[in-house]
Amino acid sequence: MGIKKYRMLVLLFSVLLSLLIVETPTAAAQLSQNYYAGICPNVESVVRGVVSQRLQQSFAAGAGTLRLFFHDCFVRGCDASVLIANPNGDDEGHSGADLSLSADAIDLINKAKAAVDGDPQCTNRVSCADILAMAARDVVSLVGGPFYPVELGRLDGKVSTRAIVKYSLPGPTFNLDQLNSLFAANGLTQTDMIALSGAHTIGVSHCDKFIRRLYQFRGPQEFTPRMNLQFLRQMRQVCPLKYSPSTVAMLDASTPFKFDNAFYQNLQQLEGLLASDQILFADRRSRGTVNWFASNQTAFFDAFVSAMTKLGRVGVKTGDDGELRRVCTTVN
């Protein structure tokens, strides 16, 4: 498929997606920061305890959980459908974009669900979608980022299929127009998009997501932002032409284990690993926000919290559209 046709399909799908997941007043009204106060009052401390313990065992579970939340909300809304494993393999986890989702992160959510249900007052009364939202927040705060109140009250989705994933998530070679179009379809602004991209201050990426940048492989009309020459040489050592599919590189090589604003400072130095990250600085329309976040970590944190709150409202399930899953990986 030609790049022009592909971009047209992405734009068309974004428009259709916006019609499918527009937040309804009922869904918005359902969410509340103290939703579980009279249902399962200790739920947040229980989830945080599991997240803290799991991070000590596997730091990858942290970035993986944050990515899991984003992938969940962008595909069918924040309904934990990303966790469903269908017997026939037709689920989100078996799509190309989700094949690399962290098994440690999925294990973290399953363990958090088991811990919550272990409290007789809470058994089968807390959704997997809410547990995922809380865990994503806890990951951020436990590795140096802001702590913020999470809106709760989501139900879990009943459907998970592969087909929709391909056109629902941003690709590693997306330009600014493509990014803005997809995020706008989910009710998010360009500033929200740039702030959420800052989650790449932790975590890794596999070579196949950026190998084309390293060796200047480009298709017609494909733009590759410039890369710092020394950084390029380092990345070529990590990912040679004959790389192992399991090889990964840090998305933020300067402070890979801390949630901070170094990601944006890396972009200023032309050390963004993914083309879709570096484009935020390369394109003049978004460069000012990158510079702002790079110089002011508080501004980044505030924008990130705002964007995560808005992201958590996407596609919230209510009534018969959702359920409280007894097991996060299977519908009831």
TrEMBL record:
<keyword id="KW-0408">Iron</keyword>
<feature type="disulfide bond">
    <location>
        <begin position="207"/>
        <end position="239"/>
    </location>
</feature>
<comment type="similarity">
    <text>Belongs to the peroxidase family. Classical plant (class III) peroxidase subfamily.</text>
</comment>
<keyword id="KW-0575">Peroxidase</keyword>
<feature type="signal peptide">
    <location>
        <begin position="1"/>
        <end position="28"/>
    </location>
</feature>
<keyword id="KW-0376">Hydrogen peroxide</keyword>
<dbReference type="GO" id="GO:0140825">
    <property type="term" value="F:lactoperoxidase activity"/>
</dbReference>
<feature type="binding site">
    <location>
        <position position="75"/>
    </location>
    <ligand>
        <name>Ca(2+) 1</name>
    </ligand>
</feature>
<dbReference type="GO" id="GO:0020037">
    <property type="term" value="F:heme binding"/>
</dbReference>
<dbReference type="InterPro" id="IPR000823">
    <property type="entry name" value="Peroxidase_pln"/>
</dbReference>
<feature type="binding site">
    <location>
        <position position="201"/>
    </location>
    <ligand>
        <name>Ca(2+) 2</name>
    </ligand>
</feature>
<feature type="binding site">
    <location>
        <position position="92"/>
    </location>
    <ligand>
        <name>Ca(2+) 1</name>
    </ligand>
</feature>
<keyword id="KW-0106">Calcium</keyword>
<protein>
    <recommendedName>
        <fullName>Peroxidase</fullName>
        <ecNumber>1.11.1.7</ecNumber>
    </recommendedName>
</protein>
<feature type="binding site">
    <location>
        <position position="252"/>
    </location>
    <ligand>
        <name>Ca(2+) 2</name>
    </ligand>
</feature>
<keyword id="KW-0479">Metal-binding</keyword>
<dbReference type="Pfam" id="PF00141">
    <property type="entry name" value="peroxidase"/>
</dbReference>
<feature type="active site" description="Proton acceptor">
    <location>
        <position position="71"/>
    </location>
</feature>
<feature type="binding site">
    <location>
        <position position="81"/>
    </location>
    <ligand>
        <name>Ca(2+) 1</name>
    </ligand>
</feature>
<dbReference type="InterPro" id="IPR002016">
    <property type="entry name" value="Haem_peroxidase"/>
</dbReference>
<keyword id="KW-0349">Heme</keyword>
<dbReference type="InterPro" id="IPR033905">
    <property type="entry name" value="Secretory_peroxidase"/>
</dbReference>
<comment type="function">
    <text>Removal of H(2)O(2), oxidation of toxic reductants, biosynthesis and degradation of lignin, suberization, auxin catabolism, response to environmental stresses such as wounding, pathogen attack and oxidative stress.</text>
</comment>
<feature type="binding site">
    <location>
        <position position="72"/>
    </location>
    <ligand>
        <name>Ca(2+) 1</name>
    </ligand>
</feature>
<dbReference type="InterPro" id="IPR010255">
    <property type="entry name" value="Haem_peroxidase_sf"/>
</dbReference>
<feature type="binding site">
    <location>
        <position position="255"/>
    </location>
    <ligand>
        <name>Ca(2+) 2</name>
    </ligand>
</feature>
<feature type="site" description="Transition state stabilizer">
    <location>
        <position position="67"/>
    </location>
</feature>
<dbReference type="GO" id="GO:0005576">
    <property type="term" value="C:extracellular region"/>
</dbReference>
<dbReference type="GO" id="GO:0042744">
    <property type="term" value="P:hydrogen peroxide catabolic process"/>
</dbReference>
<feature type="disulfide bond">
    <location>
        <begin position="40"/>
        <end position="122"/>
    </location>
</feature>
<comment type="similarity">
    <text>Belongs to the peroxidase family. Ascorbate peroxidase subfamily.</text>
</comment>
<keyword id="KW-0732">Signal</keyword>
<keyword id="KW-1015">Disulfide bond</keyword>
<dbReference type="InterPro" id="IPR019793">
    <property type="entry name" value="Peroxidases_heam-ligand_BS"/>
</dbReference>
<feature type="binding site">
    <location>
        <position position="170"/>
    </location>
    <ligand>
        <name>substrate</name>
    </ligand>
</feature>
<feature type="binding site">
    <location>
        <position position="77"/>
    </location>
    <ligand>
        <name>Ca(2+) 1</name>
    </ligand>
</feature>
<feature type="binding site">
    <location>
        <position position="79"/>
    </location>
    <ligand>
        <name>Ca(2+) 1</name>
    </ligand>
</feature>
<keyword id="KW-0873">Pyrrolidone carboxylic acid</keyword>
<dbReference type="InterPro" id="IPR019794">
    <property type="entry name" value="Peroxidases_AS"/>
</dbReference>
<feature type="domain" description="Plant heme peroxidase family profile">
    <location>
        <begin position="30"/>
        <end position="332"/>
    </location>
</feature>
<feature type="binding site">
    <location>
        <position position="260"/>
    </location>
    <ligand>
        <name>Ca(2+) 2</name>
    </ligand>
</feature>
<keyword id="KW-0560">Oxidoreductase</keyword>
